[in-house]
């Protein structure tokens, strides 16, 4: 639960905040979230620490883990709630039956997965298959590179310069034709 | 913190043995990886074993020391460094600083291979903040990686840029990232857009030149890139919506396509197409359409569509619904949509799911200003939410109440808020709520009272006010909040240079500013002094007020070292003609010379602590005696006055605070003593100040006050206020949502008898809380509003057979006029191609023969028999009656003998001519009536058209002359209608543009004693024009392939019709669809829109859902039919 908290809060962290504040936010958030019953709503309105009434904590409780997102008013509450679900399902796919231990021992991986979904504080991708494909492709590349550790330098650079395999995104755009009628000509 | 860790990890040791973390699929990597994990593992294990925070600290410090040694050793390999970084991240997460590792994280990002680089970047983004100086060292790495040919490296660089990047270095990477917008991989384009969004946030000026590129991203062929660009647009439109109005059409188109399921199934989440994208688009539309009728016009259709599509009960569809509702209420209102949105809000509020309830309350809070009646409908739910166990729900409810506060319910609402406060929730809630209470009731009301009441306000009122402010509540924070708010509000008021405020108000202001200026830290005292100085120069300020201002200046001066303004004031006033002011100036001057004395004389916030009061007021005895001798009123104890006031002025009830000052202020004499001037200066000064001898002034003023502002005086003002509030509310009550108000039957007072005690209590609470919200003020309000609107509801349903009163026809007219715009849009659309989505009923006029067969003909029943129509009708009679044989539509088919009987008894109940009687038709319903005549309508569904039969019956005993019936644009003329007789005319109508419902305006005029004209309207539904279409399965297949416009939707089947055949039966019976074939769990149906537009429907059942797939050459028809299908499936 730590990492989620710290990660999310990290992304809302305003310009200059000491580590202390960050820890305080995490503590406060945990305090707030952990004492909530099961049958209450999943939204918590902002405390002073997370920046006032514009900000909200949206959390989901999975067994011993809390996934807490801190969002401002430009996000939809229910939307974020489902985003957490997508996140957890993605973790489950990437780790194959995810458990707390995976999250603790592979903090970095969890962060990477999250970064594929939420980038710079904005939701980037919500399509689970797409996220998993990206992560898998990266893992593969990294693995192959690591396996080449002892290989001659030229071989390594060859692998390095190899492009990502074509990811079958399967976006059959088909009928969609987004036209911007008033698009000025590009100079 | 440690106990958090302990709790998480206490469950783990047992698992640790069996689960080798390095072996998991996540634990990719070489042999080094295993050792890294095991080191992290042993660290975690040992932390888990600890019992105290202190031990944890020791252990981590040890770990950090060893890490420090490792990372700074030159022999450390990058791989080892990577594993050190992971441990450092863990330590940082626990709250221990590891700044020694930051530089190594940057190095790792620079030098490592992909995996190491990734960890390095991650560590950097976790360790550093945006302004960290080390971040500059990262820029080079980022630039290098952006230029890399390896996609993963580019992705990493873009990710880190969007997370954390120094603002001043943007120019270094901007061109590189711009290039990435043209990259062939969509993931790169997407991330580039996101990085640019980040730049837009931190330095909007630097990305100004690439706005065109954002547009290009918006129409990127990859939907993901387009979605990413929406973030930017949302932000830009939030800041300046007028600059992007031209994009409205594009956003609408995108949303339409998304909603219509044109995106690939990959984007679906629980079979909802791209919900997050929809949410984003709806938000953007809301911002664009705000206060802009023209732009809003463009989005009505798609909003309606979104509302309709979001029917399945999954969480995410509620998210979309909520956004829809919010958008509908944000943009320029359209009554139909508002009605639907209001229903949606109802769904939220009444939902047993607590998250939805919360959002429902939020939505109510949002719409309450536009539509207070909605709150009335849900008042019982709101009352229940007030006692909800979840404090968040409770708070949201209070927020809602806060918005509907008015003069009449302020006391109850503030009481509720105080109750909540007493339960002692977290600090933030308290502060915000207290702010609201203060704002709501105290300062705002008082400000209003002061500025309106002006100088005739009873001088007790400002004094009491100031005392309350000074003594405050029991809670320090609340007091602080309140005072800060007061200072801020006064500063804001004084901001308006030339505004004239009453003297009393100025006095209050200057006292508050003098006493509490230092609480507001972001305002320079010099600014306040300047403001006070300018006040001093104003001619309208009386010398009494100037004395108050001077006192404030003195207090402020005592807390600032040296101020030019103070010197100026001293200089100016030293030569003042007003001796009193001169005195102040001199005092101030002397005090300024001796700061120490000044400080001790004027301690901060000592307004109620430093006074040693001679409680018996013996020194005033002589004064009192003198006063009494001059006829002043005898002294009344404070509580007595309070009670009197209470009985006089409901709005200025000080009760909630009564205790606090009753206990601390023992006598009224303090009122005088507590004046700002009297505080610290001798009695010689107070002789001139505001409230010396306040007994005399009081008595003097009281005479005037009583007349103007006494019991009778305050009330008119109140009423004005509420009156104003009510005016705009009356409108929506009448036209928009009236229908629903009537559906809150639990609230009708007359039902109170059958309710339990508790419910009664709740009702009472409701009536006190929601007082003043409805169309008319007063306690009986709800009952009244209910009945009135219910009446309206009934009347607006024209199809119901009700005897209509005069009043009713008024209502009806208003209903018709509501829909006028619908028809008005029609001429514009006539040129539109057949497939246009815009729908409307084309106006039929005899001149345009291609549109509607507009043969409105006046024929006597006899002549009808010979009419051309007749042949056609009778020819088709057989097939039709068989088609409709088992339909649920009530068919009015009295036997001919019964008809005769009824005709002889009540000649005025019109009945269809025999030859039409055979055809499927609706009931004869009343349209409208007056004293003289009544109009009835019957719809006859012939094979190829809809016949409207209008009956005109003369109720009087004399013949009516020159009756003109105008239905839409055609007129039929009856020269005379005999007494007690019925005439009828018929009109054939066709729908040329598809719409779910249309209203034909009509009127009838006749000559009795004078020319009278009645207006009414006829409601037509799409189903009036739908006929079954017979075809073979083969034909169906051929036709299906040739049709292009398709619409798909899943709808839930109710348990009772849980089979395909049951569902098909429903559709066949209620919608007149022809069942072509059924194969397995699939069925095909066909129908046509008159005259001959086919629409094919393919149904499939799977797990309780019915998947409907429509195809038709006309784009709007499937939508309309889908809507009807949903309706009948819900109903059945």
Automatic annotation (TrEMBL), chain A:
It is found in: Cytoplasmic vesicle membrane; Golgi apparatus. Keywords: Cytoplasmic vesicle, Golgi apparatus, Membrane, Protein transport, Transport. The keyword RNA-binding does not apply. Residues 18-141 form the AP complex mu/sigma subunit domain. SUPFAM superfamilies: SNARE-like. One of its GO terms (biological process) is Golgi to vacuole transport. It is a peripheral membrane protein. Pfam families: Clat_adaptor_s. Gene3D superfamilies: 3.30.450.60. InterPro entries: AP_complex_ssu (IPR016635), AP_mu_sigma_su (IPR022775), APS3 (IPR027155), Clathrin_sm-chain_CS (IPR000804), Longin-like_dom_sf (IPR011012). GO terms for cellular component: AP-3 adaptor complex; cytoplasmic vesicle membrane; Golgi apparatus. Part of the AP-3 complex, an adaptor-related complex which is not clathrin-associated. The complex is associated with the Golgi region as well as more peripheral structures. It facilitates the budding of vesicles from the Golgi membrane and may be directly involved in trafficking to lysosomes. In concert with the BLOC-1 complex, AP-3 is required to target cargos into vesicles assembled at cell bodies for delivery into neurites and nerve terminals. Belongs to the adaptor complexes small subunit family. This is Adaptor related protein complex 3 subunit sigma 1. It comes from Zonotrichia albicollis (White-throated sparrow).
TrEMBL record, chain B:
Its main location: membrane. Residues 672-691, 805-817 have a biased composition (Polar residues). Residues 15-35, 672-694, 805-853 are annotated as: Disordered. Keywords: Golgi apparatus, Membrane, Protein transport, Transport. This is AP-4 complex subunit epsilon. It comes from Zonotrichia albicollis (White-throated sparrow). The keyword Transit peptide does not apply. Belongs to the adaptor complexes large subunit family.
